[in-house]
Amino acid sequence: MQKTTPSSNPNSGNLFSRLQLDGRLIFMVLTIAIIWVIFNVLSEGIFLSVQNLWNLSVQTASVGVMVSAMVLVIVMRHVDLSIGSILGFTGMVMAVVNARVFPPDAAWNAWATLAVGLILGGLIGAFQGAWVAYLSVPAFIVTLGGLLIYRGGAWLVTEGQTVGSLTNSFQVFGGGVGGSIGAIPTWIIGAILLAYVLVNDVSNYLKRQRNNLPNRPMWVQIIVTGLLVLLIFGFIQIMNGYKEPQTEVSRGMPVPVLIMLLTSALMIWVVRSTRFGRYIFAYGGNPEAARLAGINTKLLTTVVFAIMGVLAGLAGAIQTARLGAGTNSTGTLAELSVIAAAVIGGTSLSGGVGSIPGAFLGALLMSSLISGLVLLGYNSAWQQVVQGLVLMIAVLLDVLYNRNRPR
Fold first, then answer.
1. What is the spatial distance between Cα 287 and Cα 297, in angstroms, rounded to a whole number?
2. Cα 388 from chain centroid (whole Å)
3. Its pTM surpasses 0.85
4. 381 partner at 20 to 30 Å CA-CA among 5, 55, 105, 403?
């Protein structure tokens, strides 16, 4: 959530400020729309097909799960370079326990496997956070070491072997066999989202009006709410539009996408509605002032890194389940996509400012670029070049934005 102080004069500032709109989010949405149109033209209509957009949502899931926690890490003026390796390490451990330790036919196998991955990821994150918080080792160094340790650890767990034959119940987490919730549950989730948007927008508008706070003009609010409703409706239509080849039955929302949405909603609630979330932004704005105010900044740092580890473990479950096997390359360079998505979405590397919805859009943008390049036949080398360039441009825009931002 981006922390801003409303101007006392609603007519001051640029057009977006006067209309109480987030210019960076609008820019992100327009950028994604332009990218989609370009790739659709170059791919002769394949990019915007229902099948590709359904697959794109699944491809976005692992980055989308991790990026909300990365926002919190960067807001606190840190960075976690190890999340790709944690993803790969926890994914390999989950593959081993799923296929070789737990009984394959046990009903509890998949959930117990997931619990192992989440606990392991949380412990790794807390361990790294403790080094940063209590031993005062820079997060860059700690997590760079973690990047090497856990990437090597993934290899040592099986001595480089690929672990396959994961249970079908576990592969559901990656959208495999039975990995979609169907049309009716998808519509139910869509109805819940629509109701939330309508109730939230109306109540917030009336609350700001009652308290004489700067507010959007009524016509702007109607347009914003209407666009959100259309986006949700379009998303549900796409999810239900992808059908099984033989039966023509709608697959509905993939399980990894549902996990991503639930994780993002939970993290947004934590940031906007809890004291813990307010403490994170207070620390990012001024660490010394937060400490003097009585915030346990060391524990706060440790917990944030632990959350990052848990979500990296969750992403590891999604990726491993999607592949149907534990491989040593899983999660390679995932940290690049996640950090880029957070920065593109408006999270400032100088700390104190971040937006989870913006980071979510950043994850979608990065996944769209990779998907489009794959459709056009570009190999992984070109994909890495594009991701690196996007990250550099995102940081440049962040620097320019902070330089021109009113103090």
1. 8
2. 18
3. yes
4. 55
